[in-house]
Amino acid sequence: MKFALAGWLLAPLSATALAAPAIAAAPAPDADLAKVQAHLRGIESMVAEFSQTDRNGKVVTGTLTIKKPGRIRFQYEKGVPILIVGDGKALWFIDYSVRQKQRWPIGNSPLGVLINPDSDLTRFAHVVPGADPRLLSVEARDLRHPEYGRITLTFSRGGNGPAGLTLLGWVALDAQNNRTIVRLSNPRFGVPIAGNAFDWVDPTRRAR
Prior knowledge:
Elements: H1 30-42, E1 45-53, E2 59-67, E3 71-76, E4 82-87, E5 90-95, E6 100-105, H2 112-115, E7 125-128, E8 135-140, E9 150-157, E10 165-173, E11 179-189, H3 203-206
Antiparallel strand pairs: 1-2, 1-11, 2-3, 3-4, 4-5, 5-6, 7-8, 8-9, 9-10, 10-11
């Protein structure tokens, strides 16, 4: 498997796979981007279920856990030997099927937008005009590092999330234009999360 399921984290998202098809519209005001920034910074902790669809249409599910600053965990469904964990300093991509791990600085991944409270969206993101006023999409990419790809986060206006938004998911395009879609459901904000929720077993040590 060799981290095939983890590649979507290494590139920012493409724009509208979660939203209604975009049509010509006036650019959204800067207030929308500020609202997204306030939402992301306002998430101290969050738990949600997710489904992930890769470029071949394969779907896997699991649980997403976030705790600021810098901690995130994608716990995949039983039978998927992949684990993705952010420990506050770096993101770890762990594949137990081949007993390998990879480490990436949080700043080198679009997930930094979700878990780094100091992220300034105005430097690398813009609002994507769309047809459905109930939705708000923001595309982020690092122009200095096109190899990271693109990520588009989609929110619904309203709900119980910070700043009146709810994160629905995102779409990722890597440098080879491979698309992965992540959809979230049943998000819970401000929930207590144990510190050891981000512990993991080193597969290379198991191999010894």
